[in-house]
Structure formats: C-alpha cells, structure tokens
Design a protein that fits this description.
30% helix; 111 residues; 5-stranded mixed beta sheet; disordered C terminus; 2 helices
Length: 111
C-alpha cells in the first residue's frame, strides 16, 4: 500500500483491535452495570454511552470513567440549562475510548 490510502483491511484490523479491547474491558469489570458500546467504522475507536435510568446516570458514568482510567472529562450544560452532557476520553491498548452520559439537574443526587 502506498500514497497514504486507507484500505478496507486497515479499517477491519482497527475494528478488530477495538473489539478485542472492549472484550478485555468487559471481562475486567463484570460488576459494573453494562452500558451501550459502539466500535466506530473509521479508526476503530470505542464509544460507550450510559443509557441507565436518569437518576443513576452520573454515578454510572463516574464508575466507568474510573474503571477505564479516563482522566480527561468534561461537563457541558445544554443551552436550556436542564441537561448536562458528560464526556470522558482516553486511550487504552492503543484504542481511543470515550464514555458519555446526559444527566438532568433535577434528578442528580448532589444538586
């Protein structure tokens, strides 16, 4: 391969590597409630989305963030101010990993 082209084989290998990393993550953390995971088509990144009941989303997001060692986290308020978007990201085993959740102020434990 020359000229910087990305082949279907490259994308397939990236996805396989990401799927393997996800299998390792799930095996290492069987006690944490499951979240929705996506392996991206381009680049083979992992994206986790907390889909638990609204009242427990912030806590579950925090559990996964800590379990994955994702130190870079952001909280972005929505334009209307009722929802807060949580996002943490990092790299594990050469795979980009992110976790997201949407929480609501009135249902959040500490607010």
């Amino acid at each position: 391969m020359s000229g910087g082209w990305i082949s279907q084989g490259d994308r397939s290998r990236w996805q396989q590597r990401a799927a393997g990393e996800l299998a390792g993550i799930l095996a290492a953390h069987p006690g944490i409630p499951v979240i929705a995971w996506t392996v991206t088509a381009s680049g083979g990144a992992l994206s986790g989305r907390v889909t638990a009941p609204a009242a427990v989303r912030r806590g579950l997001f925090g559990q996964w963030r800590l379990a994955l060692g994702l130190e870079e986290a952001t909280e972005t308020p929505s334009a209307g101010g009722t929802a807060v978007y949580l996002h943490a990201r990092g790299v594990r085993g050469g795979v980009a990993v992110s976790v997201t959740a949407t929480v609501f102020d009135e249902e959040d434990d500490g607010r």
